[in-house]
Amino acid sequence: MASVASSPPLDQIIFGNCLEKLKLLPDSSVDLIFTSPPYADNRRKTYNGTPIKDYVKWFLPISQELFRVLKPQGSFVLNIKERAVNGERQTYVLRLILEMREQQKWLWTEEYIWHKKNSYPGKWPNRFRDAWERCLHFTKNKKFNMYQEEVMVPMGKWAEKRLSKLSTEDQTRHESKVSSGLGRNVSNWVGREKAYPTNVLYLPTECSNKNHSAAFPVDLPLWFIRLFTQENDVVLDPFMGSGTTAIACLQTNRHFLGVELKEEYYRLACEAIAKYRETYSLPLSAVPHPALNGQTLTNGVYPSKLERIRDANDTKHSRA
Ligand SMILES: C[S@@+](CC[C@H](N)C(=O)[O-])C[C@H]1O[C@@H](n2cnc3c(N)ncnc32)[C@H](O)[C@@H]1O
Question: Within a domain: residue 31?
C-alpha cells in the first residue's frame, strides 16, 4: 500500500475510489472541501450510487477521512439533496448530519441553499417542482477562516427607499426578540454600496459541461472558494465529476485536488483542465507526486492530450 505523503499532491485529479485515495493525503493539509457526491442512487444508470438504506454507512468512512485531511480552520461544504420516494422525502441526509456530529465531531455550522433559478416547470400530484439543494457547511472548530468581504453584493434598490427615512429604532442597536444575542442597527448601512449576502444563492443550473449529467455550475464552487479560502490555498473535491471545482480553482488561483471513480468523467475533467490551461496560457508543467505511485496523470492532464497540446504549442512557436 502506498504511504501517506508529507504534502498533498497539488493540481491533480486522482483516478479511483475516494475512500482509498484520501488515505494517501496527509492530515490537516486541505483548506476547503467542496463536493457533491452521488445523491444516493438517483443516477445509478450513469454512475455508481449507493442505495438509500446504506447511504449513511457508505458516507461516514469518507467523511472521517475528510475530517482528518481538513485543516483545523478549514471548511467542508457538502452539496446534497435527499430524494423523494413513494411520495415521501427520505431522511438519509438528516441522519448523515446527526452521525457526522455525534460520531465524528463535525460542527454543522451553517446550511446554505442553492436556489436553482432556472429549473424547468413540472406538475406533481403532491408537491411543486424542486428548485433548491442544500450546501451543508461543516467545520472542525467554531473559529474558521471566512473572508466575508469577498462575496459582498450591491446594496440593491430597496436601500434607497428603506434607508431614506430612518425611525428612531433604526438609529440604535435593535436586539433580536428571540434572545439570540444578535442585533442590528439599520443606520450603519446608510451610504454603503455593498452589503453581506444572505445564505441563499440564486444560481442557474446551466453549466458549460453538458457531458456530465450532474455537473454543477462553476459559480457554485466559486462562491464558496472565495468565501472560505485565499489565493494558493488547497481545495479538495473527492467526487470531482467533470472537473468543475478544479476550473473554479484555476479561475481564482487556488490549488485543486480531486478524485473521480469513473474513467469517462476522469478524462473529461482532465481535458477540461487542459483546455482551460491552454486557453489562458497557464503552464502545463508536470509535477508527478511520489505518493501516487504513477496512479495519476501528470498535473491533471491526460497524456495523449498533453502531447497534443505540446505539439500544438511547438508548431505555434516554430511558426512565430
Ligand atoms: C454528483 S457527481 C459530481 C459532479 C461534479 N460536481 C461536476 O460538476 O461535474 C458525483 C461524481 O462522483 C463520482 N463518484 C461516485 N463514487 C465515487 C467514489 N467512491 N470516489 C470518487 N468518485 C466517485 C461519480 O462518478 C460522479 O462523477
Answer: yes
How far does residue 15's CA lie from ligand 1's centre (Å)? 11
Give the distance from CA 183 to its chain's centroid.
31
Q: Which three cell numbers stand for residue 201?
A: 444563492
Number of structural domains, the chain? Answer: 2
Ligand 1 centroid – CA 257 distance (Å)? 14
Mutate to test the pocket of ligand 1, among 114, 240, 270, 273 (most ligand atoms within 8 A of CB): 240
User: Do both 36 and 125 map to the same domain?
Assistant: yes
Q: Are residues 141 and 58 in the same domain?
A: yes
Domain range for 162 is 155-195
Q: Give 192 Cα–ligand 1 centroid separation in angstroms.
A: 42
> Could you tell me the pTM of the whole model?
0.84
pLDDT tens digits in sequence order for the chain, 320 residues long: 566 777 888 999 999 999 999 999 999 999 999 999 998 776 666 656 788 999 999 999 999 999 999 999 999 999 999 989 999 999 999 999 999 999 999 999 999 999 998 877 888 899 998 999 999 999 999 999 999 999 999 877 777 777 777 777 777 777 766 666 666 777 777 777 888 999 999 988 866 556 777 889 999 999 999 999 999 999 999 999 999 999 999 999 999 999 999 999 999 999 999 999 888 877 654 444 444 444 444 344 434 444 444 444 445 444 43
179 conformational bin, left if phi > 0, alpha if psi -120 to 50, beta if neither: left
212 shares a domain with 175: no
Cα–Cα distance for residue pair 79/101, rounded to 1 Å: 17
